[in-house]
Amino acid sequence: MQRRQIFSFAGSAAVALVLGVTTPLAQAQPAAPFKIGFILPMTGQSASTGKQIEGAIKLWQAQNGATVAGRKVEVIIKDDATVPDTTRRIAQEMVVNDKVDVLAGFGITPSAFATAPIATQGKTPMVVTAAATSAITERSPYIVRTSFTLPQVTVPIADWAAKNGIKKVVTFVADYGPGLDAEKFFKSQFQLNGGQIVGEIRSPLRSPDFAPFLQKVADLKPDAVFVFLPSGQGAAFMKQFGERGLDKSGIKLIATGDVTDDDQLNDIGDVALGVVNSHHYSAAHPSALNKKFVAAFEAANKFRPNFMAVAGYDGMRVITKALEATKGQGGGDALLAAMKGQVFESPRGPVLIDAQTRDIVQDIYIRKVERQNGQLYNVEFDVQKAVKDPGKAK
Ligand code: PHB
Question: How far, in Å, is the centroid of ligand 1 from the Cα of 309?
Answer without folding.
Answer: 13
